[in-house]
Amino acid sequence: MSRVWMQWQGEMPDAWLIALLAGVLAMLMGWRLLPPWWRGVLLVAPLVMWGGLQIHPGWFLAAAVILLLIQFNAIRHRVPLYRSGTAVIEALSEEIQQRGLRQLADVGCGDGHVIAALARRFPETQFTGFETAPLLYLLARWRCRHLSNCQVMFRDFWRVSWREQDAVFTFLSPEPMLRIWRKCQRELPEEGALYSLAFEVPGVEAESLIGAGRFDLYRYPRLPRQSTISEPE
After folding, report:
1. pTM score, two decimals?
2. Per the CB 3.0–4.6 Å rule, which of 60, 70, 182, 229 could disulfide with 22?
3. Are 217 and 135 found together in one domain?
4. Across the beta sheet with 103-107, what order do the strands follow?
């Protein structure tokens, strides 16, 4: 099976070349997430395992490609895939109900299971997910295919206005949180709010802390316009 899969124009590429390509992809995926010394380890690992364990490097290449399709944003924005649980959906449901939210964006929505679940519960609320990891985007689109109040966009959320949103939900990483908060201050309406799961905005005190299973959900309301921070991104 692997020989047929790897065949190209009737010839098999050299195994060392396939192992090297797998190592390069692995190194690129870990470039911004791991310490510099890991780069060399990831580069040579497929070569070493191919030589020592006699595992065909095509399997390493296939694994690297699949990881790239899933963890694409870890390379671009240092935002690896995290998956929210049922407790997060329950916490967001209470906020939507209590505050009457009519537009909610999930920036970095992953496979879309959160916004799909919320869209089924709240048919009068419009949910928008943003995802640029190709495989996750396709999964999210499939989940929301029958939900008229749920759309998933293959777009960089930094380049899209949030002015129509009542709230923005994130479960990203510590890296972009201050930039996310500043974007919310510039673009969300007066009563808008940022909901961040697990990761705090550095130097900013959350208005409320909501229990959401293993992690806490931080709520940051948009500040009055005269108090908005105008620092550059």
Report:
1. 0.68
2. 60
3. yes
4. 150-153, 126-130, 103-107, 167-170, 193-197, 215-221, 208-212
Low-confidence ranges of the chain (pLDDT < 70): 1-20, 22-83, 226-233
Residues 111 and 60 in one domain: no
- Structurally, the chain folds into a number of domains equal to 2
Q: Which region, left, alpha or beta, applies to residue 55 given φ > 0 means left and ψ of -120 to 50 means alpha? A: beta
**Among candidates 165, 152, 160, which has minimal Cα distance to 99?**
165
> Amino acid letter at 217?
L
pLDDT in tens, 73-111: 555 555 555 667 899 999 999 999 999 999 999 998 988
CB 177 within 8 A of CB 203: no
- Looking at the fold, whether 146 and 107 belong to one and the same domain comes out as yes
HSE-CB of 177 using CA atoms within 13 angstroms: 20
Grouping H, G, I as helix, E, B as strand and the rest as coil, residue 221 is strand
Provide the β-strand partners of residue 195.
169, 219
Which stretches of 30-176 are DSSP H helices? 37-53, 57-70, 72-77, 86-99, 113-121, 134-143
Residues 6+ apart with CB under 8 A from 58: 2, 5, 6, 18
